Amino acid sequence: MDRSLTAEVRARFAPGARGGLIQAGEPLDLVALAALAKETGARFAHLDGPASKTELLDGLASGLAFPDWAGHNWDALEEMLSAPEAYGGPTATLIAWTDPARLADPDAGTFRRIVDAAAAARTAGGGGVLVVVAGPSSRAIGAADPTRGLPRAIWGIGKVHHVALIVSSIEDSLGLWRDALGLDVETVMDIESDHVRIAFLGVGESKVELVEPTDDTTGVARFLANKGEGFHHVCFEVRDLAESLTRLASDGIELIDAAPRRGAEGPVAFLHPRSCHGVLVELIEAPGGPAWSSLGFQAAPG
User: Fold this and answer.
1) Three-state DSSP class for residue 204
2) In the chain, N or C terminus with fewer CB closer than 10 Å?
């Protein structure tokens, strides 16, 4: 995303600034916008080229988790965007609106007016800002959309937390990952409840997890016996794990864990490979999230 656009979006979240609509001439970088929303503590939603009023209202209701009692019309949308604190919603909101030209002019004009009115209402009420960035998607120039096909609930993932690899011996594997490739070993521990021994090695903002089964009867041990060493799952960080699971389930994603549970480094839950194109997906809640205290975790300082 162009630096000038990033600076303009960031400026709209500065203390005393007014939100509103930003029209971008370049394809929107959804990953960068989601990261900026996380940095500013704003809710992030993506309007993926709605072509009708219904698609726009559905996209915002799902992306911003409007309450069930909210109406499904322009007046209700303006109410929800103007005063999200009234229903426990976030006080700052960043919406990426890709391919706005797909929406008919009358509906696009109404939505722009609502954004302007809601942004003004938030400013007058002293609440968090509302910023909508409108611009073409990467599809408009023939590139792939990085969020195409992903459930809305994880469009705003913070990062890849780790990639997990099944190994027959952590000690033997460290000869490659630590000694040859130079990754730092952060921790090695036994997870007795899962009958595995694990090691985390840092690489940039993410990690490699080595998983060694300690019991021949477990699923991890069967995986090793049937498929050998190799890739097992990928873990994404989310801000609110329970909320993400609820919204994923409503989108038809099959959950292995219906609620957050204790993991080695925070609250976690798994999504079934049947719903993830054959990939086992783990979600972990970012430090300090709502499930941390309920599961007895303490976020690391800083």
Assistant:
1) coil
2) C
Phi and psi at residue 181, to the nearest 5°: -95, -15
CB-facing half-sphere around the CA of 35: CA atoms within 13 A: 9
Other CB atoms within 10 A of residue 249 CB: 15
How far CA 115 is from CA of 79, 110, 135, in Å, comes to: 11, 9, 15
Distance separating alpha carbons of residues 230 and 168, to the nearest angstrom? 10
Give which of 205, 98, 115, 99 is closest to 155, Cα–Cα: 98
Q: What is the pLDDT of residues 54-70, one digit of tens each?
A: 999 988 888 787 887 88
Distances (CA, A) of 247 to 61, 83, 117, 149, 157: 11, 22, 28, 15, 14
Contacts 24+ apart (CB under 8 A), 285-288: 285/237, 285/238, 285/239, 285/240, 285/241, 285/260, 286/158, 286/237, 286/238, 286/239
Same domain, 174 and 216: yes
Same domain flag for 228 and 117 = no
CATH number at residue 72: 3.40.50.300
How many domains would you assign to the chain? Answer: 2
Which is more confidently placed, 249 or 233? 233
Count helices and strands (H / E) in the chain.
Answer: 9, 12
Q: pLDDT per residue over 115-146, tens digit each?
A: 999 999 988 877 789 999 999 976 544 444 44
| pTM for this model (two decimals) | 0.51
Same domain, 7 and 144: yes
For residue 102, give the amino acid letter: R
CA separation for the pair 124, 130 (Å, rounded) = 12
Q: How many CB atoms within 10 Å of residue 132?
A: 26
Tokens matching residue 218 = 């477990």
